[in-house]
Structure formats: C-alpha cells, structure tokens
Amino acid sequence: MGSASQTWWVRIAAGLLLVAALGATLSACAPQSAHSSAQANAARALGAFGALLPLTTTPTSTTTVTSTLTPSVTPSVTPVTPSIGPDGPPAPPPDIAATAVELYDATSGKTLYALAPDTSLPMASTTKIMTAVVALTYGKLDQQITVGPDTVAIEDGGTSVAGLQLGEKLSLRELLYCLMLPSGDDAAIAIADGVAGSQASFVALMNLEAGLLGLSHTHYANPHGLDAPDHFTSVSDLVRLTQYAMKSPTFAKIVATPSMTLPATATHHEFILANTNELLQTEPFAYGGAIGVKTGFTGPAGYCLVFMAQRPSGVLIGAVLGDATYDGRFTDATALLNWAYAALSPTATPTATP
User: Fold this and answer.
1) Distance between CA atoms of residues 243 and 254, nearest Å
2) 183-210, pLDDT tens digit by residue?
3) Full DSSP string of 22-88
4) pLDDT tens readout for residues 2-35
5) Which residues belong to the active site?
6) Domains in the chain: boundaries
7) What is the CATH number of domain 100-344?
8) What global pTM score does this model have?
9) Alpha-carbon Rg of the chain, whole angstroms?
C-alpha cells in the first residue's frame, strides 16, 4: 500500500481511538439523564470519521463504542424524627409569657429555642453580669474599696441595695457578692468607682468589653441597670455574655451561691446576703442543677432572668426579658429547662438478648 494510503489508515486509526475515548469521557462526566445523548454523539462522530475512508476501501470489522459506566443509585433518605425518651415525637416547646427568650445548649453549641432573640430591650439588673466581668478583668479581688457619697446616694428606698454605709471599706471580692446576690445597686457604684475611678470610666469599659465580645445589640449607660435611654441588650447577647462570664471560676462560684454572710470586720459591718435568683433557693422555684445567674426588674424592663443549669445530659443557658410577673420569669425558665432536658435525657442502652 502506498504512502498516501498509509497516511489515511493512520488518520483513521487515530480518529477511532479519539472517538472511543471521547465517548467514554462524555458518558462518565454527564449526568445519568444525558448518558444516552453522549453515546449518540459518539456514534455520530464515528460516522463522520467513516466518511473519510477511500471509496474503494471496505472495512473488515465494525467498531462498537460501549460505555462501561455503571449507573449510580440515588439513596432514599427517610427523615428521622427525634424522640423524647423511649418513644413518641418531641414535645412542642412550652408557652412562654416573656417578651424575648433564648435557650442555648452550651454542650452542643445549638440554640434550642428563641423568641425575638436579637431585639434590643431594657435589661434591668442583668446588667450586673457585665459589671462583674469588667470588675474581674480590670480589678483585683483583694483590693480595698471605700464606699463614697455617690454609692449611698442611690439608697433611696426605690432600688435594690446591699446596705453599704458611707466610709466603709470592702474588698472587691466582698463587693461582688453584694452585687450579684442581693443585686446591690450601691455595690455596682462602689465597684465602678473603685476599679475605674468613676462610673463614666467604668461604663466605657463595659461598652468596650461588649464590643470585644461581639454583643451587637447591647449598650450600657450605667453599671447597675436602672432605666436609661441608651441602656439595652438582647437575650442572645445575654446568653453569649453569660457563657463567657462563667469561664471565670470566681464568677461561677458567686452566682451559684444561694446565700452567705460576710462577717463584720474593722472596716465594715456584717452583711447577710440572699440571692434573688430563686432557682437556687427552696420551693416553689428551686430547680435541680441550677447554677446561676442573675435576676432583674424595672418597670420598663419587666421581670428578667438569666439562668443556667447543669445536668449529666447537658449544660443549658437561657435568658428571659420582659416577663409581666415576678413568678413568670421563674416559671418560664423552669418550663424551658424541663422541655429541653426531656429531649436531651439519654435513653437506656438496650440489653442484649442471649
């Protein structure tokens, strides 16, 4: 055969190999719905190469392009409904009376329930969580702080106070108990003056910490939580702040304390302090596993509560703002905790049958 014929056969062989490779590639890359189309395209291309054969040449065999791709099978997914305990669908969340609520599972990192979580609202004495955080960050627990005139000026009978007296000296540690247990507005002012030199400087530190923690729906105007135009937070920010604050062993110990007595010293009188968080107290609101955190109340803010509980099945942090009644904040918190822990309770491991 002449050189021209050899060139034709080389071109034809190369073309056939290219078509076979192209057909296989198209079949492998295309979705299943385009599989037959890819094969048809390969066949048409093969026909085109066949047209290049000399008219006097009769092919001795027929080349068949076959895809070796095995069609994939889409698995059937059946949604699984979580159950509470051994059987039944999950219980619906309880009816909540508060204006805004969030319940967060600190163990899994999931928000379990949220109602208006990012709405900025008055926060009342839940403010004192940040007051304590700033005090622990910038102060020293053993530093002595003298009670000044602005501290006792707030003791007008219309606010919650620890009963500090002008000229007394208490350590920052003692003042933190006076702040968090009886929710002392006077202790908040004494701490602000002692740690930062003035309330204004201390509030600047509070807002600095809020920014560093990403509390985008929060702004502070004072260290105690009495109503002010630029004083607000959200339940989502309160939960985040509490999760951070509880990393401090000192903070965690203080907010979990139901009551305590600070004995009289040469610089101050005796203080008998009871925690306003009744989840830590006796019936009717005591909650098994409760470990904090802070109550609050003003007229515009309503009744507020930041709460936290720890059980073998998980650690939960929650916040309610704007409850209408004193009892409501505790019953809302209890209902949410019971609902969540019912879902989180581990089921018994089945016993193998011999």
Assistant:
1) 15
2) 999 999 999 999 999 999 999 999 999 9
3) HHHHHHHHS-GGGHHHHHHHHHHHHHHHHTTS-TT---SS-------PPPP-PPP-------STTSS
4) 444 444 444 444 444 444 444 444 344 344 443 4
5) 125, 128, 183
6) 3-50, 100-344
7) 3.40.710.10
8) 0.74
9) 36
